[in-house]
């Protein structure tokens, strides 16, 4: 057991000054069987600490329905076994380019702008959740022989709000639950952010990607004493669907890291290893500059982040540059790089053998159909990740007029009397082809991820402003939701009856199989497919989308098995007419696949 505390200028471990050389690694973005390897990679880079967020919505998808809260404890145990300290950032809001910033849809849907404030309903929900989560942390603190040395209060709150009463209450909840290690906050190095996000008596840290001296000067003006720490050193960045792949040059990032350490500060690399937003949990941002009020920018499934350890767990050039820099500030030489996990032995083409139309999938896995005067939101239908089928009758007889899905979030595939009529999005809410009555209109709306940062975090999904025919609202809308977690296991998916392949590019659920010899890490390539989700042996890989920049989905080796493997694909827009050979598993280390993996200099 050790005492870890905050001194006037340093962190102190049993009275001895120590520097935290930490790396962010989210346990929920890495297959559990690969935690040990990734943690040893952090040690090999020269780090002595790991940091993780905790996504509330992952662990409580419905009120009172808990899912594997113990995963956090097991991860902290793995960190201790790897010889790492740990920083835990339990939120309740985490950002993290994660769906809704980690807040449950059922909570933000009810509270709206009252979330992340002193609102009694919000605080009651947080206190109940922390009461279930924090025992995983408390029993693993440094003063009890565990790895946890810091626990964060909220997350970048100064970028969002100014409710000091709320922050102080959160700090109180942590202490009352038994957190005895130091608390901290993290914010941008600007006066309004530091003042809005700080808690009296709690260590303040800053987040930035460069300009360490200026950032720490700002922190010192705000807090004259205490250890300096960059809680998020942004050594890479994340990607949006339809955007460019973000890359930060390794030498530039290494020099920015050196500057942080030369200031005598501790650091947390964000990300050291990003991993993957499996299961459709990737969030979204709003463009439009600093106000974050512009067009929706959904995040890709990969959370590679151009990190020093890539999505597959391999060292990049940035890894080796960081290792050299960190070696000059560590207590001793880092351990050797651990052997890479097994990779798939050879390319495998899956056989696509069956198909079920969207209506059959909805019938097998969807929620109850409801009829409302106006379209209900995803939140009202209890859909976190997934889609909703809206149906309405355009009365007639009447002429052809524009049909508009007002306040659409995010994409809708529209059919009129069973014939596809187009795809709508929030910046193009009106069908190009007018619709005449009498007609039945269906809109299959997909959420591309709830906003995880900025003033529009927590906004509802679906058709939020009504359906209009010309200027007239269409009332009497039926709606039925499909949650992705309804298809979580291969056994569940087999419940839907499949039929012969359609051969006309139809949307729906496609079933296939792949025979594997030498299972290991792989990429899944889907040439010709447009947009949807994939499951391998019941494991949800996440969203694919032909708009890029992501072209393949990472398949962790532990997901595959020797011999037969089941692959299910839910195509939401348009499939290839000929699906033969269109699902390909290939080894992660195949020639030409190492463009972002640096050889040791």
Automatic annotation (TrEMBL):
An example Gene Ontology molecular-function term = beta-galactosidase activity
Provide the Beta-galactosidase 1-like first all-beta domain boundaries.
375-475
Domain named Beta-galactosidase galactose-binding is located at 509-565
Hydrolase as a keyword of this entry, yes or no, is yes
What PROSITE patterns has UniProt attached to this entry?
GLYCOSYL_HYDROL_F35 (PS01182)
Q: Where is the Glycoside hydrolase 35 catalytic domain?
A: 11-326
Q: What class of enzyme is it?
A: hydrolase
Q: Does the record bear Ligase in its keywords?
A: no
- InterPro entries, A to Z: B-gal_1-like, BetaGal1-like_ABD1, BetaGal_gal-bd, Galactose-bd-like_sf, GH, Gly_Hdrlase_35_cat, Glyco_hydro_35_CS, Glycoside_Hdrlase_35
Q: Name one Pfam family in it.
A: Glyco_hydro_35
Q: Which reaction does it catalyse?
A: Hydrolysis of terminal non-reducing beta-D-galactose residues in beta-D-galactosides
Its Enzyme Commission number(s) read 3.2.1.23
**Location of the active site:** 156, 232
Query: Which domain of life does the protein's organism represent?
Result: Bacteria
Q: Which UniProt keywords apply?
A: Glycosidase, Hydrolase
Instruction: Give the record's family classification.
Output: Belongs to the glycosyl hydrolase 35 family.
What is the protein's given name? Answer: Beta-galactosidase
**What is the species of this protein?**
Streptomyces doudnae
Q: What is the lineage of its organism?
A: Bacteria, Bacillati, Actinomycetota, Actinomycetes, Kitasatosporales
């Amino acid at each position: 057991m050790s005492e870890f505390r905050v001194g006037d200028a340093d962190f102190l471990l049993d009275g001895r000054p120590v520097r935290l050389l930490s790396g962010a690694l989210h346990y929920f973005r890495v297959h559990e069987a690969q935690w040990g390897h990734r943690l040893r990679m952090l040690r090999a880079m020269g780090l002595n600490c790991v940091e993780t967020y905790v996504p509330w919505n992952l662990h409580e998808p419905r009120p009172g329905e808990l899912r594997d809260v113990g995963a956090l404890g097991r991860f902290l145990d793995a960190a201790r076994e790897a010889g790492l300290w740990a920083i835990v950032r339990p939120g309740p809001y985490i950002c993290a380019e994660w769906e809704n910033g980690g807040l449950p849809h059922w909570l933000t849907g009810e509270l709206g702008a009252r979330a992340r404030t002193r609102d009694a309903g919000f605080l009651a929900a947080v206190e109940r959740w922390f009461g279930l989560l924090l025992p995983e942390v408390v029993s693993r603190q440094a003063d009890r022989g565990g790895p946890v040395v810091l626990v964060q209060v909220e997350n970048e709150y100064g970028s969002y709000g100014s409710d000091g009463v709320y922050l102080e209450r959160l700090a109180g909840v942590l202490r009352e639950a038994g957190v005895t290690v130091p608390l901290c906050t993290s914010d941008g190095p600007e006066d309004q952010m530091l003042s809005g996000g700080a808690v009296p008596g709690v260590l303040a840290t800053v987040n930035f990607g460069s300009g360490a001296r200026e950032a720490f000067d700002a922190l010192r003006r705000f807090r004259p004493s205490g250890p300096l720490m960059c809680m998020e050193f942004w050594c890479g960045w994340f990607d949006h669907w339809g955007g460019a792949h973000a890359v930060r040059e390794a030498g530039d990032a290494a020099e920015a890291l050196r500057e942080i350490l030369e200031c005598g500060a501790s650091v947390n690399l964000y990300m050291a290893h990003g991993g993957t937003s499996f299961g459709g949990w990737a969030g979204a941002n709003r463009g439009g500059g600093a106000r974050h009020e512009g067009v929706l920018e959904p995040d890709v499934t990969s959370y590679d982040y151009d990190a020093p350890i890539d999505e597959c767990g391999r060292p990049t050039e940035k890894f080796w540059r960081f290792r050299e820099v960190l070696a000059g500030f560590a207590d001793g030489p880092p351990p050797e790089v651990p052997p890479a996990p097994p990779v798939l032995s050879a390319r495998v083409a899956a056989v696509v053998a069956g198909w079920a139309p969207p209506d059959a999938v909805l019938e097998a896995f969807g929620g109850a159909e409801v009829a409302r005067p106006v379209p209900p939101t995803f939140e009202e239908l209890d859909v976190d990740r997934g889609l909703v089928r809206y149906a309405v009758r355009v009365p007639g007889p009447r002429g052809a007029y524009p049909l508009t899905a007002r306040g659409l979030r995010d994409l809708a595939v529209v059919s009129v009397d069973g014939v596809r009529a187009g795809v709508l999005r929030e910046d193009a809410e009106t069908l190009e082809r007018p619709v005449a009555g009498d007609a039945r209109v269906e809109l299959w709306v997909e959420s591309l991820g709830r906003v995880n940062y900025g003033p529009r975090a927590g906004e509802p999904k679906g058709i939020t402003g009504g359906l209009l025919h010309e200027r007239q609202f269409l009332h009497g809308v039926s709606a039925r939701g499909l949650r992705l977690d309804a298809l979580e296991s291969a056994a569940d998916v087999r419940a839907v009856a499949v039929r012969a392949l359609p051969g006309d590019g139809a949307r729906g659920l496609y079933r296939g199989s792949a025979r594997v010899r030498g299972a290991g890490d792989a990429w899944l390539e889907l040439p010709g497919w447009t947009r949807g989700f994939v499951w391998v042996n019941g494991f949800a890989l996440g969203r694919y989308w032909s708009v890029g920049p992501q072209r393949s989905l990472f398949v962790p080796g532990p997901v595959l098995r020797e011999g037969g493997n089941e692959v299910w694909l839910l195509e939401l827009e348009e499939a290839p007419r000929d699906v033969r050979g269109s699902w390909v598993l290939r080894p992660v280390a195949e020639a030409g696949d190492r463009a972002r993996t640096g050889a040791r200099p």
